[in-house]
Amino acid sequence: MSVLTVNNLTKQFGKFTALDGVNIEVNEGEIYGFIGPNGAGKSTTIRVLLGILKATQGSATIFGQDAWSDAVDIHKHIAYVPGDVNLWPNLTGGEVIDLFVKLRGSNNQSRREELIEKFNLDPTKKCRTYSKGNRQKVALVAAFASDADLYILDEPTSGLDPLMEQVFQQYVLEMKNKGKSVLLSSHILSEVEKLCDRVGIIRQGKMIESGTLGELRHLTRVHMLVETKQPLTDLNELKGVHAIEEKDQAVSFQVDAEALDNVIKHVSQFGIVKLESSPPTLEDLFMRHYEQKDESEVGGAS
Amino acid sequence: MALKKTGSLFRFMLRRDRLRMPLWLIGITFFTLAVPVAFVDLYASQQERDGMAETMANPAMTAMVGPADLDNYTIGVMSAHQMLLLTAVVVGLMSILLVTRHTRADEEDGRLEMIRALPVGRLSNLNATLLVLCATHVVLALITGFGLYALGIDSMGLEGSLLYGTTLGATGIFFAGVTALFAQLFENSRATIGFSIAVLLVAYLVRAVGDVGNETISWFSPLNWVTRTEVYANNHWEPLVLMLGVAVVLGVLANYLNAIRDLEAGFFPARPGRKNASAFLQSPMGLALKLQRTGMIAWAVGLFVMGLSYGSVLGDLEAFFEGNEMMEQMLVAEEGYTLTEQFIPTLMIAMGLLATVPPGMAMLKLYGEEKKNRVEHLLGRAVSRARLMGSYLLIAIANGFVMLSLTGIGLWAAGDAVMEEGLDFGMIYGAALIYYPAVLVIIGLAVLFIGVLPKLGSIIWLYVLYSFIALYFGGLFDFPEWVGQLSPYGYIPELPVDDMAWMPVSMLVIVAIILMIIGFVGYRRRDIEG
Ligand SMILES: Nc1ncnc2c1ncn2[C@@H]1O[C@H](COP(=O)(O)OP(=O)(O)OP(=O)(O)O)[C@@H](O)[C@H]1O
Ligand SMILES: [Mg+2]
């Protein structure tokens, strides 16, 4: 069942189109990774979902309710962590956490204490004195201490150290196990790869890819490292082979998924001594979209 | 080494202030030059000026603008008497805002950290700031000084004109020193501005009390030194030597404190705070109140003290009127009111306008929070926009009521104590509270701007300033009636002298409500910035 649906969402700031026909669907019990380069429109999408910005066109619904007009009702069941956590300098972290939890409704003291301890936060300090990571922890503790059905997290870990990052991942997975849903925007692709069931990639306000990691991988290239008895020739003449690099005896290259069969046939003629292949990482996927962008721009210019 | 690259920072600050500085300078110069020109028209003969001197020769006016040589009330003396002190206060304010902006505000927001990571000395930023301010005030001294002289008014000679300008400049440098010092002591820019303005206000009040009662007290106030220059009368330069001397001491002290402290630290270390939110801090309203608490208390105390100071003058006023036939003739026009009572509306309009500032700030705070990206924490939770704005509005409405009440109560308490036959509480309180509908209109205007054109919210301050000039100076300069009627304060009956007029007062309330409704509708429709 879908918890969050964004349909053909367009948002304009004056003449500038920040979002252009964005579609997203997050199902119950699913972690959805939302990635894209800086300024792509991730935060803008999320702020429309929170009813803080008004959509120019299209619809955004959460729990079947409209993100703009039913904002207050919806917010009773969601928890949000912004990327830039700006807090009130003269309140303590503990006060802010309590206020945030209270404003959502429920209150669970023991859970709060546990989170503060796990995230290693001093709640008696004024927010003025917190580092970026500590401010983020305040928002995370407040989010995880509330009993929400949907967690909307906008780059929640950009200031956390690796240890805290693990604590964070642990809590996200715990939420998933409880059947909650998560929308996670992030630049840390290993994190997205580890946590998310499905991923959407946005660029310049347009969704350019979405699906499970498996599906996305299918669209992309496999890394190969081959060592052959006879020197491997004519590789660059095959379709779907990229980034060929000679390494001592071996050759490394990338192959488009659909060309794999052909390439293996070709390579086997030279007598394979060693063959390693690794699936594309999310980073490759991501980079490929950059490359495509560059290529298309070059193409457009000529 | 500690001062390395001060010159570069100096130029950088001038660049950052390339609009702000000229606006301040032009504003202050324009005001300074416009007044004597107006006086030449309005009070052409010595006879008229002596009449003016008579009106000024009472303790209330002395408390407000300081002493002067009233037997020799030339255009020059009159301009300096009525304008110099108030202008000096504005110049002081300018220094406070500019110094804070370049010191503690930059430091608090982490910009100074980036500067300090460059090959820049530890004290360079502070001293570049002080240099910028000194340079600005030298320019101010010269353009106002020569500008006044250039008006070619007989009683305004070269020495007096330059002294006038230098007094303004020296006051500016003095308060730059005060602010530089507080910027070291406090960890945030709000406290820096708050305490610096407190010094400015206390200086004003100390000299008010001293000038009326005991001159020795006055000498403790730097703003007294401003009036003691006796510009265009005896032209004393000595008080300015004192002023600049103290300013240098303040600057050295600020440098010392800056040298021995850590970046982003102050001298009042943060104590551990509460681990849990109090029962009070559980709603948008509780939060808004907590955020503004200190500021509101400071304003409340300030306005109450102001009421008290004006009130304490009423006793002297009465004694003064008794012996002064001419004054009695002048003011006796209204039947059935004592002279003191007739003087009350003049005091009330000033206090009513000042009492508009804290509720206006309380309302605009909502947009300040938005700009700092903090309202999304609330709106991202189960808080509706109407509830959020409503919380701020309720606080502003209550705030305005309390502030006005305090001015009235202060005035009554002190006045009742010093006057022989006492004062009627109802009369004074009513004369204060009658301004409430106008305050509501200003609050409504703030709501409207926040809802519809949030970036322009500060316009309400221009409007308040306009109201002050139109109504407070309206009498002095004989403005046409419509000038006052462009301000909501112009429709308020001047109790107790005027009769109560329900019609305009209810209209103001209705206008305020309409403004608020439009603001609410707009706020529910627009994007939240940040
Ligand atoms: N209030 C606004 N007015 C005008 N333009 C805006 C506004 N808010 C965002 N934008 C623009 O919309 C685009 C999308 O911004 P957004 O913050 O959504 O990017 P993002 O994907 O979150 O980037 P990042 O990864 O850097 O956080 C940017 O080009 C930004 O400049
Ligand atoms: Mg973002």
TrEMBL record, chain A:
UniProt keyword annotation of Cytoplasm present: no
Alphabetized GO MF terms: ATP binding; ATP hydrolysis activity
Domain ABC transporter: start-end pairs: 4-229
Keywords from the named record: ATP-binding, Nucleotide-binding, Transport
Pfam families: ABC_tran, DrrA1-3_C
Domain of life: Bacteria
PANTHER family to which the protein is assigned, alphabetical: ABC TRANSPORTER ATP-BINDING PROTEIN, ABC TRANSPORTER ATP-BINDING PROTEIN NATA
UniProt similarity note: Belongs to the ABC transporter superfamily.
Protein name, UniProt field: ABC-2 type transport system ATP-binding protein
Taxonomic classification: Bacteria, Bacillati, Bacillota, Bacilli, Bacillales
TrEMBL record, chain B:
The keyword Transmembrane helix is annotated on this UniProt entry: yes
Coiled coil: none
UniProt KW GTP-binding keyword: no
Key words, A-Z: Membrane, Transmembrane, Transmembrane helix
Membrane spanning stretches: 21-44, 80-99, 126-150, 162-186, 193-210, 240-257, 295-313, 343-367, 388-414, 434-453, 460-480, 500-523
Protein name: ABC-2 type transport system permease protein
Organism: Natribacillus halophilus
